[in-house]
């Protein structure tokens, strides 16, 4: 018997029902895990609850999923999610961050900020070595932040272009002098934002074609041993790691398992001990969290703070009219999206800043579901229904990032249809989607961006007119422009007084919630599942992307 999902329209339910053939999935999983030594790595049974050792022990290999497979592990050149998760064990930044987004040591042992907010001085850990045995020094930091990242990393370029000078005071001290105050600067040193790369390998080379990109060399607790494309990425302990007795693990093996049912089965059977981000579809989470051998957390994503929205091309009529965008907002039910499509993973947003990010203000215009208000706005625009009840037709291109985004597209088509907006769904692959959005070749799409701990780093880029850059993804691809918004974001980025920054960011949130350049849908939460034998994992605001230097496996 097919169970009806309460509250979900029948047309959507058809997409929600899964007919997973477990035997077929098991066959796919067996193929995915068929590598030498696998049995020794994954055969240990799950610990019974309450019997795990409290004292860390050395040894063992953590098996995790990586999906999709990273295009490269050279984190300076690529910052996609899977690259961050794997390469965050190989490379390091100067800092990491706790769950409240306070800075913590990584390659930097300590740091000071001058009273005027213009000089940041970092003392580096001593006796650090690159994976090829060469010594790490302040010169590597200067090269990485003033040359390498300035050429290849747009987000790092935006931060470090604010520096008047970057110099090594000695082998273990680096000084950054800013042209003007930029209080978000302290958030710019996380590993994906500013990975430190070896100057002795990259200086004087073509960064993008350097052969070392295929065999990444970092300072992290793990180094690359083997990458079998389409199968697995094997990291092993860095025996020369500068922190005594760390890491605890012998290694981490990331398994490439394209089939969603096989990924679920791998966790369920204990053949992998960790999943993260979108490894599991949200509709799998209610069942998986009841498994006796795993724990679930949505923590560890505070630094990225993902926000999902309907991205709207303002160059296309009637999408350029904020009344039309508001009609869309009134026509959809964000609680339904959170509860029935994302199965409770996330929070209903109020505006452009995620509620876990600094300077969030909930006192803004909000849009509760109201079909009458939506229709009244469309009437005001002169968009009267035709004989078929259609007022306007728009094209919606859902993100090609899995079944959940497809379901969201189906729901949006149905919801907007109720107010006379006919939605034509367009399908594309990941590469095609990225190209079309970057080149403004779309009407409406679904999208989500990370906010990186401070509005100056991860929020402003979406809305400031100076970031309308054709061909560049994750910029102001909508074409939204408001001089007052530009001014407020600029002022707030340079203001050292937190109270004044709050006033500026509160005002910009009020303006954006009225202009509605995008329709915010969900403050996303990702599920991280960990086998109960895995200890001390996912402890910071960058969670599964951190070094895992202190992670250990209970026997």
Could you characterize what this model shows?
The protein is α+β, with helices and mostly antiparallel strands. It is built from 18 helices and 21 strands. The strands form 6 sheets. The chain has a 6-stranded mixed β-sheet. A 4-stranded mixed β-sheet has the order 1-10-9-8, with no helix packed on it. The protein has a 4-stranded antiparallel β-sheet with strand order 4-5-7-6, covered by helices on one side. β8 (222-228) and β9 form a beta hairpin. α5 (138-152) packs across α6 (154-160) and α17 packs antiparallel against α18. It is globular and about 75 Å long. Mean pLDDT is 91; it is low at 1-28 and 34-52.
Overall structural class, as computed from helix and strand content, comes to alpha+beta
The description of the largest β-sheet is:
6 strands, mixed
Radius of gyration, taken over Cα atoms and rounded to an integer in Å:
24 Å
- Secondary structure tally: strands: 21
Q: What is the mean pLDDT? A: 91
What is the count of DSSP helices, taking H or I runs of 4+ residues? 18
Shape: globular
Strand ordering within the main sheet: 14-18-13-17-15-16
Low-confidence stretches: 1-28, 34-52
Q: Give the terminus-to-terminus CA distance.
A: 42 Å
Helical fraction equals 25-40%
* Range of strand content: 15-25%
